[in-house]
Design brief:
With 330 residues, the chain is α/β, with parallel strands linked by helices. The chain is built from eleven helices and twelve strands. It has a single domain (31-328), classed as Alpha-Beta Barrel (TIM Barrel), CATH 3.20.20.70.
């Protein structure tokens, strides 16, 4: 309706550019693209295993052959990368299976590079999935021993590189592990293998469903001694800066949505390739609310992923990668 006589004449009408989807798309500031998504996969032992995680509808523990099928489908949807987590049949107090060349992650890397050669294969490097106590490192008197843990992490990272991983991703939050892994990779001829560091990984309440999927809940205590205090943001910049100095090629903030401010500060401060992980709890909350009819899952998924991207993330690790890639291509 035109303005009535005497009404304020508006020269700036922002709604002009919101009138239709075509116009809105034309001026959209933040865009999602399939090639920015990375799909996490939980790889277990056996053949033909596809076991749904109770707290994460649509996410499965997968045998290597099933992981290849899942990754192939993701690649067909436009997803260019996967992040592998290993679920060994045997665990011990030092996580020895983490460096076993026949373990699920190493076996999956070889199979994926053979069957989906243009897929970027990233491997999580930590001990929590491999230790019988569920902690991220080697214990002495119930305390994680930093430098001894780093030695074990180095062995795991090298074994992943030997299997053919494109990127190794240390998630343990031990001090000095990025530099130690970089030196070990270079010394063994793996200069081209990149490091994506979980640089600002917070001690978050949003990891619960992941620990269900990976059977990695600590047998006692928690992870406050090494993961970051959720109240701290300046500290995140120090952590990220040190990992860059030690040789990280990509830095990550985890979780994503509760730490959008940290993602923005990291990107603005370092102008470095930045990843953000939309973690299991974020995914599970959306799933639960959608199943109860409280939200439109598709819209909520895209809105949260757009927020993560808008905050500055170049790479978004999400269990929604396949669905988001399909929608982003429309």
């Amino acid at each position: 309706m035109p303005d009535t006589p005497g009404s304020l004449a508006l020269t700036r009408r922002f709604r002009r550019l919101r009138r239709s989807e075509s116009i809105r798309a034309l001026v959209r500031e933040t865009r999602l693209s399939p090639d920015m998504f990375v799909l996490p996969l939980f790889v277990c032992e056996g053949t033909g295993v596809r076991r749904e995680v109770g707290s994460m509808p649509g996410v499965f523990n997968l045998a290597v052959d099933e992981a290849v099928r899942e990754a192939s489908a993701a690649r067909a949807a436009g997803v260019r990368g996967v992040l592998l987590f290993g679920l060994p049949a045997h665990k011990d107090d030092v996580g020895s299976a983490s460096a076993d060349p026949k373990a699920p992650v190493q076996s999956a890397v070889r199979a994926l590079k053979r069957e989906v050669p243009d897929l970027v294969v990233i491997t999580d490097v930590c001990l929590c999935e491999y230790t019988d106590h569920g902690h991220c490192g080697i214990l002495a008197d119930r305390e994680i021993v930093n430098d001894l843990t780093v030695e074990h992490l180095v062995r795991a990272a090298v074994s992943h590189a030997e299997a053919g991983a494109d990127i190794v991703a240390p998630s343990d939050m031990m001090d000095g592990r990025v530099g130690a892994i970089r030196r070990a990779l270079d010394a063994r001829g793996f200069e081209q293998v990149a490091i994506m560091s979980y640089a600002a990984k917070y001690c978050s309440a949003f990891y619960g469903p992941f620990r269900d999927a990976a059977a990695s809940a600590p047998a006692f205590g928690d992870r406050r001694s090494h993961q970051m205090d959720p109240a701290n943001a300046d500290e995140a910049l120090r952590e990220v800066g040190q990992d860059i100095e030690e040789g990280a090629d990509i830095v990550m903030v985890k979780p994503a949505l509760p730490y959008l401010d940290v993602i923005r500060r990291v990107k603005d401060t370092f102008s470095y390739p930045t990843a953000a992980y939309q973690v299991s709890g974020e995914y599970a909350m959306l799933k639960a609310a959608a199943r109860n009819g409280w939200i439109d899952e598709e819209r909520a998924m895209l809105e949260t992923l757009t927020a993560i991207r808008r905050a500055g993330a170049d790479i978004v690790i999400t269990y929604y990668a396949r669905e988001a890639a399909r929608l982003a291509r429309r």
